[in-house]
Design a protein that fits this description.
Layout lengths: L1 E6 L5 E7 L7 E9 L2 E5 L4 E8 L14 H8 L14 E8 L2 E6 L6 E7 L3 E9 L2 E4 L2 E10 L2 E16 L2 E8 L5 E7 L2 E5 L5 E7 L4 E3 L4 E4 L3 E5 L2 E5 L4 E5 L5 E8 L2 E5 L1
Parallel strand pairs: 3-7, 3-9, 4-8, 4-10, 9-11, 10-12, 11-12, 12-13, 12-14, 13-15, 14-22, 15-23, 16-22, 17-23
Antiparallel strand pairs: 1-6, 2-5, 5-8, 6-7, 16-21, 18-21, 19-20
């Protein structure tokens, strides 16, 4: 199935729905933006509902002012004598579905597009944006989430997550876990704040260069030991700043890393 949306003139927001081939079964959402926020929320339905809005970030704390330079230039152009401006903010968006995989494409490289997407609760997410935030709620699956200039916030999530951003916090609250999947939460400039169920079993691999590490789990801590390598006549010993913590006897490895921020691992 293919749904295509093109907005022109004064249409700044519109909504389309994409039916799923196999309602009730696990789905996959793939979407990547250059400029724009992505909000994905679980709901009780058998379609993927996509609302596209052009314009500024919906995050009041977003300081990516340069993301909207094109919009500012358009609004500041002089109006010819005797003329009036008709606002134009075109959005181009296509959404295709095959075997419960929904892929969304936009022209977010040329205009900022914020997406508000509703999916059934059992969905895998492969979501990324360059200049914007990612926010999800109530979704169970295998998730790969990334941003460059923006935070990542996931609430009431189940399954597993691989997440990374450059400028922004990563905040996640889990309800359930995939007990065998490794996970990672990595940011350059921001805090990593993750809440797990009390029964979580894992090996926490933690590192922050200019922050601190906090937890209310009863972790067994093991600081990095010297790593020794031999290659023929060469003998090499190296140290790094990783700290390892065993949670409830251990399990898959979860990586927590920030260069300039704190790491907080909470017990629900």
């Amino acid at each position: 199935m293919l749904a295509v949306l093109k907005l022109v003139a004064q249409d700044f927001s519109e909504q389309i729905a994409v039916p799923l081939s196999s309602p009730g079964k696990q789905g996959v959402l793939e979407v990547g933006l250059v400029k724009g926020d992505i909000v994905v929320t679980a709901y009780e339905g058998d379609e993927v509902v996509i609302k596209a809005t052009s314009g500024y970030s919906t995050d009041k704390n977003d300081d990516c002012a340069s993301c909207d330079d094109d919009h500012d230039r358009d609004q500041n152009r002089p109006v010819p004598d005797g003329m009036k401006r008709i606002s134009s903010n075109p959005i181009e968006l296509s959404a295709s579905e095959k075997n419960n995989m929904v892929e969304i494409e936009t022209n977010s490289w040329s205009t900022r597009i914020n997406l508000d997407i509703k999916v059934p609760s059992n969905f895998d997410l492969n979501v990324s944006t360059v200049n914007g935030r990612v926010e999800t709620s109530g979704i169970n699956g295998v998730h790969e989430i990334s941003s460059v200039n923006g935070p990542i916030e996931m609430t009431n999530v189940g399954g597993s997550i691989l997440s990374n951003t450059v400028n922004g916090d990563i905040i996640v609250t889990f309800t359930t876990l995939n007990s065998k999947q490794p996970m990672s939460f990595v940011t350059l400039n921001g805090d990593v704040d993750i809440t797990f169920p009390n029964s979580t079993k894992a090996i926490a691999k933690m590192r922050t260069d200019r922050g601190e590490i906090f937890t209310d789990f009863d972790m067994k801590i093991d600081r990095s030991k010297p790593e020794v390598k031999t290659d023929g006549d060469e003998y090499k010993v190296s140290l790094n700043s990783w700290v390892y913590g065993t949670i409830n006897g251990g399990g898959p490895e979860y990586t927590f890393k920030s260069m300039q921020g704190d790491i907080i691992i909470r017990r629900k």
